[in-house]
C-alpha cells in the first residue's frame, strides 16, 4: 500500500505515535521489545507498525539474532548532515 501525501505522523492514532517515540528513544527494536517498552498490546503494536510503514517512517528488517522476528527502525527524513560528504561537513 502506498501512502498518500496527505497522511503524516500527525494523522496517526496515539498508539502509532507512541511506537514512533519508543523507536526514536530506544533505536531499533523487535516487536516484542516495543510491546515491553510501550506497554501496548501486541496487536496494537502490529497495527501501529503497519501504519508507520505505510507512510514510510519505519523500516522492517531481519533480526539476525532470531530470524523469526523482525527489527523495526525509524527511516527518518534525511538531514543536511546526512546528505553532506565528509569535506562539506567539516567546512561548516
TrEMBL record:
Record SUPFAM superfamilies: Winged helix' DNA-binding domain (SSF46785)
Matches recorded under InterPro entries: WH-like_DNA-bd_sf, WH_DNA-bd_sf
Domain of life: Archaea
Official protein name in the record: ArsR family transcriptional regulator
Species per Swiss-Prot/TrEMBL record: Halorarum halophilum
Amino acid at each position: 500500500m502506498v501512502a498518500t501525501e496527505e497522511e503524516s505522523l500527525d494523522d496517526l492514532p496515539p498508539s502509532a505515535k507512541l511506537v514512533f517515540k519508543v523507536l526514536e528513544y530506544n533505536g531499533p527494536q523487535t516487536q516484542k521489545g516495543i510491546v515491553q517498552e510501550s506497554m501496548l498490546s501486541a496487536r496494537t503494536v502490529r497495527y501501529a507498525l503497519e501504519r508507520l510503514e505505510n507512510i514510510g517512517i519505519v523500516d522492517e528488517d531481519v533480526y539476525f539474532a532470531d530470524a523469526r522476528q523482525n527489527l523495526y527502525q525509524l527511516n527518518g527524513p534525511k538531514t543536511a548532515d546526512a546528505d553532506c560528504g565528509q569535506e562539506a561537513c567539516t567546512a561548516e
